[in-house]
Amino acid sequence: MATVIDFRVRPGTKKVLEAMSPDGKVPKGTNRWGHQSPEATSLDDFVKSLDAHGIDKIVFTGRQRFLDGKNGGLDNDYIAETVRQHPKRIIGFASADPATGVRESVREIHRGLEELGLKGIAVDPFLRNLQADDRKLYPLYEVATELGLPAVITVGPLVGQHWSDPVAIDHVAEDFPTLKILLSHGCYPQVTELIGLAYRRKNVYLEPSLYFALPGADIFIEAAKTILHDQVIWASAFPFAPLDIKDEFIKTYDLSGNLLDKILGGNAASFLGL
């Protein structure tokens, strides 16, 4: 099997779990998938656990979010530090809060990519009630495009359909045709619309984390087996789902051979330029 890359993982450290929830655990009330909240662990122990689940590399996306003047999310320095400790296992993506203003958010993205060496940008428009094509975000896409690095945009049902509008993402893909864009949780609930978008825009990739087994998501797998075999990327979304959920994914859709290798790692490697 080719290298396995889990494209949306936030290591189960105390800092990460506290950023996900004030009590340091993935909230039971919002964990609609029925998975147990993981216990906090050290970064070293978490990375060791990847071996048990057959995961070679993870992508760790930042989420800068300022509340009352303090960054209550996952800052770029922390992402970079985890990469520094485990450069062969962790690939970090930089973030910036658009609420800090265009100049400051652009400065932070430049810092994350050029000074800290992170490998792409993570954009969460919903946190500030923005569409993906809001002009406050375009300068961030411009930096990534100039540096030849990709972007991850968070969408999905708990984000809300309004903030996951495929039309807005289509605008971004059209305006930045050389920017590789991955839609995190990007197969549900607007499955057919997002498939159509990715078919239309070859620079758009989809990953099914958390929602691959929900009603209607099987159409996404049909597309992965045919028209989108180069544009589908696996992710677990840990800590909201266990790392071994990929085994359920493989079994549910009877995936094997070259297609499985591409979904679990080959397409991600291409997206990342590895």
Descriptive overview:
It is built from 10 helices and 9 strands. The protein has 274 residues and is an alpha/beta fold. The chain has one domain: Alpha-Beta Barrel (TIM Barrel), CATH 3.20.20. The strands form 3 sheets. It has a 4-stranded parallel β-sheet with strand order 6-7-8-9, with helices on one face. It has a 3-stranded parallel β-sheet with strand order 1-2-5. It has a two-stranded antiparallel ribbon with strand order 3-4. Helix 6 (166-175) links the parallel strand 7 and strand 8.
Record keyword descriptors for this entry:
10 helices; 3-stranded parallel β-sheet; 38% helix; 9 strands; alpha/beta; TIM Barrel; 274 residues; globular
Blueprint of the fold:
Layout lengths: L4 E2 L7 H7 L22 H10 L4 E5 L4 E2 L2 E2 L4 H10 L4 E4 L8 H14 L5 E3 L14 H10 L3 E4 L11 H10 L5 E4 L6 H10 L3 E3 L11 H8 L19 H9 L3 H16 L2
Parallel strand pairs: 1-2, 2-5, 6-7, 7-8, 8-9
Antiparallel strand pairs: 3-4
Helix pairs in contact: 4-5
> What percentage of the residues does DSSP assign to strands (E)?
5-15%
Distance between the termini: 17 Å
- The largest beta-sheet arranges its strands as 6-7-8-9
CATH class equals: Alpha Beta
Number of self-contained structural domains: 1
Total count of strands: 9
Question: H/E element string?
Answer: EHHEEEHEHEHEHEHEHHH
- For the record, what is the CATH homologous superfamily label? Metal-dependent hydrolases
The whole-angstrom Rg is 17 Å
Given helix and strand content, the structural type is alpha/beta
Low-pLDDT segments: none
State the helical fraction: 25-40%
CATH topology (level 3) name: TIM Barrel
Mean pLDDT figure: 89
